[in-house]
Amino acid sequence: MTTIGILGAGRVGAGLAAQLAATGYPVILGRRSPKEETAAPTEGIDPRLSFSDQRTTARTADILINATLGDSALHRLTDLRTELAGKTLVDVSNATRDADDGLPGDLCYPGSSLAEQLQAALPDTRVVKILNTMLFMVMTAPETLATPPTVYVSGNDEHAKRTVNGLLGDLGWQPAWIEDLGDITTARATETMILVVPHILRRHGFQPFAVSLVR
After folding, report:
1. Dihedral, CA atoms, 42, 46, 50, 51, nearest 10 degrees?
2. What are the distances in angstroms from CA 64 to CA 7, 106, 171, 194?
3. What is the pLDDT of residues 59-86, one digit of tens each?
4. Is the dihedral of CA 52, 125, 181, 4 positive or negative?
5. Per-chain mean pLDDT for the chain
């Protein structure tokens, strides 16, 4: 059985870990240190979910999900280059600098994207960008929105993208909701979408939504 490793134990990482474990995957949630707290009470809920440090998680798991903070992810994951070689890295983060109110205010990589930076820094790793255009609770429960949401997929490796599409299906994403944009350079388009999010949150509060394609 494919083992999923999740780097980052915040709301995004903990939510993905719990849901993927519930669907049957062995999941390792990689924390920065043994004392780091997870953002959700995942420990003890599912025997398929275990905890480790991030380097061990990267070395042990078959597929890795980057749910670390986007502004420090490039440095953190580049340090795991050896452990990530030959593996698929699913990047769900947005690299932004905060505005005064703590919401995203600007991009860390204008004219590029975190996903592109990761692929360049990790040439032996297959980077696939998904799930970065929605609030975290929609990632694992897309069916709860009134309008079918869209998840955008960017990546250079077609086999890796097919594998990731399978994971999306396990998270509840129907094939019609998955939009393959093309190679990793298309991730700069979806990462730019994060700039609309703070304006929506300021007007409507912390309510689930996704930036979606409606036909």
Report:
1. 10
2. 7, 27, 15, 22
3. 999 999 999 999 999 999 999 999 999 9
4. negative
5. 93
CA gap 168, 178 in Å, rounded: 8
Query: Half-sphere exposure of 211 toward its Cβ, with a 13 Å CA cutoff?
Result: 19
Backbone dihedral region of 86: left (phi > 0), alpha (psi from -120 to 50 degrees) or beta?
Answer: left
Given a contact cutoff of 8 angstroms between Cβ atoms, the answer to whether 27 and 17 are in contact is: yes
CA geometry: angle 156, 158, 163, nearest 5 deg: 115
Spans of all domains in the chain? 4-204
Two structure tokens written together for 110: 């204008």
- Give the span between the Cα atoms of 134 and 142, in whole angstroms: 10
* Architecture (CATH level 2) of domain 4-204: 3-Layer(aba) Sandwich (3.40)
